[in-house]
Amino acid sequence: MEILIWAVCFNLVSVSVSNQFDPHVYPDVGPFFEGWYMRLIDFSTNNSYGLLFGHVLSIQSTNSSSPKVLASLLHRNHCIENNNTCKLYSSNVVCRSKDLNVTVRDAPVIKNPDDKSPPHFTWQTPFGLFTQTNNITTFHFDFGKYIFRGRIGQPVSWGPDGEGPEGWIDKLPFVPLHWFVFSLRSPVIQYELLNVQTGQLVGGTNGVVHMEKNWGNSFPKGWIWSQGVSRHNISFALSGGLVSLGEITTTQYLMGYRNLAKNLNLNYRPGNAMFSATHNGCGGLFEIKVYGLLHEIHLSASADLSTFSDCLYGPEITGFRQACIESYDAIINITVFKREFLSLKKIDTQIIKFSALEFGGKYTCNGQCQG
C-alpha cells in the first residue's frame, strides 16, 4: 500500500536513479510482492478515492489461504454533515495468480525498470485493468457493488530522471522494501464511481491524483504513511517505520514537501537528515521533526478516530492480510524553518485538510491489525 523502507545509511555512493513505476521481474521463489496505489482528490467536493492493487509471491512453505492477487477501493462514506468528516471504507476483490497478466510494452516482463525510460505497462485481471502509456493512466475496476474507472494526465515527478523518495538508497541490494512516488499530483482528466446497486454515479474532472508503488519482501512490522495536496500546488508525502536488517531493527523515515509559490522543493531521507517522531494509533496522532542541513520541518497530523477504516489489506510473506488503518480526513500542520546563523527563521506554514494518514502493523492501536 504505501510504504518506504530502506536501510541504515552507510557512506554515500554515486549511483544512478531510476523510474520504478514499471513492473519488476519476480524471483523464482518468494517472499516478494509488488503493488501500486493511487489516491484521487476531487477539489469540487473535497472527496477522495483510493485504488490499490498488487500480487504477492508467498514463501514456499506456507499453506495460507490469504489472497495472492488483490485490489481494493477506498472510499469515504457515512459522513457527518456539520464537519464534513467521513469514515473510510474498502471494497476488495481477489483472483488467482494464474489469472493475472502483467506486460511491459505489450510483452512479458523480462527485465527490471531502467533508469530513465517512462513507464509503459498493463496490469490486468478478470476484475480490473490499469494501464500507463505515454504518461497517461487509465483504469477500470469492477468491485461488484462499485465500478471505478477514469483517465489521469501527466505526472508531476518526485525528482528528475525518475528519482523517487529513496534517491540512491533504492540501489542498495540488501534493502527489504522499497517506496517509489511516480506522481505527486497528476491532473484528473475524468473519473467515475458507479454504485451498481443504486445506480448512483459520481465523477468529475477537477482534481489531482497521487500515484506510488511498493515492492520487496513484505510490509514491515510497524509503519506510518501520510500524503496530502492542496489546491495551491502544495503537496507532501512521507513514509517510515521499523526497518529490519537481519537481527537489527531501526526506525527511519522518508519525506518530501513542495510549495511552488515559495520555491520549496525539499526531500529528506537517511543520509541528509535526522528525524524525531512520535505516533499514537489509538489517538489518531502523529508528529515528526525533520532536521536537514539547510531547513527544518515540523509536521503534525491528526484525524478523528471515527474517520479511520477498519483493518485494510497489506502484503505479507503469506499473501495479503489485514494490516493497517487509514483516514482520508486527516489535518496536517506543516511549518518550515530555514537555518540561519545560530537561529531558525520560519519561512512557511501550511494546513492541508483532507489528507491521508495510515497506521500499520504494530503502529495500529494496540496492534489491532498485526494478523
UniProtKB/TrEMBL annotation:
Keywords assigned: Signal
Identification of the protein by name: Uncharacterized protein
Keyword Signal: yes
Signal peptide start-end: 1-18
Superkingdom of origin organism: Eukaryota
Pfam families per UniProt: Tocopherol_cycl
Species for this entry: Mytilus galloprovincialis (Mediterranean mussel)
A molecular function (GO) term: tocopherol cyclase activity
Entry keyword annotation includes Signal: yes
